[in-house]
Records
---
Amino acid sequence: MKHFLAYNKAMLLLVPATAFIFIVFVYPFIYGFLWSFNFLEGDWLANYKSFFSRGDMYPTILVTLKLSLPVTIFNVLLAIPIAFALRQKSRYQKMVTTILVVPITLGAVLLAEGMLTYFGPKGWFIQAIAILGIDDPKLIHNATGVIISLVISGFPFIFLLVLSYITGIDPGLPRAAATLGASPWEQFRYIYLPLLTPGIAMAFCLAFVQAFSVYPSAVLLGSPAGPTRVISIAAYETAFERYDYSMASAVAMIMGFVQLIVVAIVLKLRGLFYRGPVTGGKG
Amino acid sequence: MINVKDRVPARLWNGFVRGIMVFFVLNVLLIIISVLVNSFGKNWFSGLLPSGFTFDWYTSAWAEFQLGHILFVTSKVVLAVVAFSVLLGVPAAYVMARKNFKGKNALMFLFLVPMLIPPFTYGIPMATVMYTYNIGGTLGGVILANMVPALPFIILIMTPFIEQIDENLENAAKVFGAGTFKMFWHVLVPLLGPGILASSLLVLVRTISMFELTFLTAGPDNQTLVVALYYSMFAAGVRAQQSVDAMAMIYMLITLIWLLVALQFVNPTQLVSRVKEVPQD
């Protein structure tokens, strides 16, 4: 009995953190979910109907998908070979990972400030390509600006994740394959890639949901009234400019739902390629 | 049997990979440096560099944007988030590491979710609930919001850290009559020091640069530096671009200094994932 009490006393240590997450994270989510259905005012689906009929609302889903999906696919395809090339632990690897963590840490707002100057009409990038005889391709205040910003913050993120999965693979496996005459490509194709598939799927999902909820760069580097009016802009405007909290909750729920669908599809696709433990050795 | 034919594509490929890497890093560096140069530039209408250099933008930015006040708020938010997250997170991590109980996996999943869902998705319902309960727009609201990703982060880093500490040390303390609290304070806390320091630094860096949650919950008086920077950029044209750049430089300097400090204790990948580094060979 005494032991049982001591055991439960230790369990109390878990209470504050759990309570916090329930009160500040779970409760608002449920609250917002229920709030998005207008139970008190007749038609409970009114907000959702309104979202899918308003010209300033439903197109944001497609606009955001068009920005975030191709960028994330591009980032993953770029990150895999580079992470693979840097898989050996070396000073070079350490240097590259340290440099790449800088844009992630600085964040979208600071990058936007730099990009406005760098890609601006008098910026160094535009000056440099002018020497090559290329006219200003207008890289900011449109979708291109947002895409560049999503590459700068998304690529290092995926790279670091994929690199951590690659370095977690037992180096004995590829070495054994090499002994049997496998070229680096064959090692990649038949050893690394199958083992990495769950990790890549995970990295894709994490990077995609971040890109899908892009906000500061869509406002600062894009044209938030039109081509880069992403779904977070619609949600923010509804909540804090029109103070329609119920509708804003509906937009946030739709935002989360679209993310969930894409994540589900990716995990389903992963199942087609890979049958084995759901997670890698670590993750 | 390696023949030269096989090596040529491999070399081309390596060169290609290296080229992309250099192109990426170079552009990111130049983007950052253009903020630096512009913040010291008198006029930059054309050419490679501004027509002259001055420190004036920093003094004017300091006054215009009330940076003293903003930095004070930022420090309060960051310190509170780190302190409360450690205070709540380390005991929770201890239980997660030491005890087996029903629903442990479900609880671990609950702690993982706030780190997987992007802040803007859960931030909107969270902020609207905070405004309904009148804590939206207050300093407390900003701190609570920022703890949502910070607290699980501490738990997820500290749990494996505690797992590797020998349980016999705790048992020995108990045999000599130490209660749970005494054992925690005299045995575990000193052993956990390095882990707590590393995870605190990571939370600190992430909180300084956390835009979304502070943006959604802060009122005009309790913006952190990164949110104030966003608003000054949003109102572009109201202030001189160089002034905004000066503010951006101050933000960058603070973030990078703390990043450098953090990198003395953790490796870069830990900023994005909770994966432990496995020693190779």
---
Amino acid sequence: MADVLDHGGEMLRVTGLHAFYGESHILHGIDFGVRRGELVTLLGRNGAGRTTTLKAILGLTGRRAGSVMVNGREAIQLPTHKIAHLGVGWCPEERAIFSSLNVEENLNLPPKVRSDGMSLEEIYELFPNLWERRKSQGTRLSGGEQQMLAMARILRTGARLLLLDEITEGLAPVIVKKIGDSVRLLKARGYTIVLVEQNFRFAAGIADRHYVIEHGQVVDAVSAEELSASADRLNKYLGV
Amino acid sequence: MDIPLQAVLSQAMLGLNNGAFYALLSLGLAVIFGMLNVVNFAHGAFYMLGAFAALLGFDYLGRFLGDESLRMSFWAALILGPLIVGSIGVVVEKTMLQRLYKVDHLYGLLLTFGLALIFEGVFTNYFNVSGEPYNGKPEILEGAFDLGFMFFPKYRLFAIVLSLAVCFGVWYLIERTRLGSYLRAGTENPDVTRAFGIDVPMLRTLTYFLGVALAGLAGVVAAPIYSVSPKMGSDLIIIVFAVVVIGGMGSIMGAIVTGLALGLLEGVVKVFYPPLANTVIFIVMALVLLWRPAGLFGKEA
């Protein structure tokens, strides 16, 4: 875990993060870091606290404690809407496409947090399906199109740290491949990405590093190079 | 039945006039319910406050400041009334309502109902239940137009046109502008909207301001027609709630169209069978609830 100690050029550093929903204590001191341009995954069983980790970074849980440094700025005390303006884009597990907005309104909804986001033209080039359906009600799209829309709308804002939650869940293999291509493209463009992923094979192909979460704590970290040597260990964590 | 068309048309016009008030008030209620999840029982009280703002500004402001000739004109009241009422709303939202969003509807309902009773009680103490007439109707709106089938008071026509314009403006704001897309998104999924960097608590305050300012505007416009009394809001608000339920809670267009249509219906029924006029809206409400529980324009859950 030597790389974890390197704090230089970090886009995200989470230290001792605790989070609660009402009385239930969900995260018990999460620690991990992501350097600029890196893609890391959060692996673990259902209910281990991966989605909650993303929500806690955004201040969407109940009470939280510890430290969340985004791009060198402490975010633990900030209200949710200010955290987005540090350059964080979130693609929630349930996708959360707005049914009262059409596709283009969905794309235009998140305010720009930096000036260098993608233009609508670039986004439509990346996801041509969205161009064809731009006047449709957001929730009329297919599952795959909704997933693309959920990712596309945070690219417009100029956010450089993307928190992507289960972006392949319930999608056909051909769509998963397409989503994988766009994630690779985003990484190539220098985005920093935290991926919560159930599909380990999908994650293994694109990540620099994997963090394993169990019972609200990071219990292990495996880099891409160590992956084949650590397969048994990971299988045990994930129970596959 | 032998009822002259002329009588039907005149009652329809008067009904439309009432409908304009229903539309303004139910629009505010619908906007507030959609965004804040609060059934705003204080809506009638804010309407009453709007009317009193006009009355006090016209008849009392000068006396209070020691210069009898100083009056807030009707036109000034049209702007200032909604702003004053809206500001009171902001205080209510920031200090009290804000704490209730996470709990059951019932708490917001009880709080706003209590506020309505307090506002009504205070004004009843100073002005009596019967209230006072408003004397500030501008001269240019005196008299009547000849519509062919009836002479229709200019002021009532003004009231209809103004509220239609305002209703359409609010619809446009919510359905067609960027701010409106924030409001719609915040209504649908506040957490994700916040995570995108939109200040949802601020939007809620703004929404409450807008909603009660609409009630305040309706109150100012009502002042020259109905007598200004502490109870004027609670008499009207029951009908307005029926309108919102028929139109569909939280539907903007539903509130506007239903408000106008039911005012019209009420007017026309008055010609055919007057005793039914006060009840017909509630009969319609019962039927609509049986047929479409989410309301005419509401989305089925």
